[in-house]
Amino acid sequence: MERERVEGMKWIVGLGNPGTQYRDTRHNVGFMVIDELAKRWGISVTGTKCKALIGEGNVGGTKVVLIKPMTYMNLSGESVRSFLDYFKADLADGIVVYDDLDTEIGKLRLRYQGSAGGHNGIKSLIQHLGTQTFDRIRMGISRPQPGMVISDYVLSPFPKAERDKLADMIGNAADAAEFALKATFEETMAKFNR
Asked: Which of 75, 91, 108, 156 has its CB surrounded by the most CB atoms within 10 Å?
């Protein structure tokens, strides 16, 4: 089934793991931002295609697609590649939202290129997209205490003490994604990289 390319279509993918047991974990902040944008924009992210949950809508005259890959984190690139091919979407029109151990909890770091830095979801994206250059919103989850296994840490829920910072960070990431619909990513970086 061929799809024609939609000019000016923006897409935002949040990385995470499907399943209720992962819903509130650090690794799922990308999904949390997609949920926040869906609520904000009245988009239902329930369509299943491209190994993802997908929702399409119109935000202030811009066609927007929200994506939650259902492949599990380590294979996120399969879903994003499939989406780009199916929708004839442009990599330059997308933003990837995910958790970042090297950024303090509550803080955002917007970047347009870089290595995976040990993040398996990003490793998969780079592998399937064949480039390290794509716009991204990295959400701080801080590093665990020494001695804690990273995989256990990222799959653990946020403690009560961090919930306020988490809520603010989700709101700010959603604001950044919304701002980027109308502005260049450079302008978005300048505004949201504090």
From this structure: 108
Residue 4 forms part of a structural domain? no
Q: Is 100 helix (H, G, I), strand (E, B) or coil?
A: strand
C-beta atoms surrounding 68 within 10 Å: 24
Q: Is residue 17 marked as binding?
A: no
Q: What one-character-per-residue DSSP string does 20-84 give? A: GGGTTBGGGHHHHHHHHHHHHHT----EEETTEEEEEEEETTEEEEEEEE-S-GGGHHHHHHHHH
Number of structural domains, the chain? 1
pTM, two decimal places: 0.95
86 is in an annotated binding site: no
- Write down the catalytic residue from 10, 27, 68, 81: 27
In the residue annotation, 128 being an active-site residue is answered as: no
Range of the domain at 49: 10-192
- Using one digit for the tens of pLDDT, what is the confidence trace for 145-182? 999 999 999 999 999 999 999 999 999 999 999 999 99
Domain presence at residue 1: no
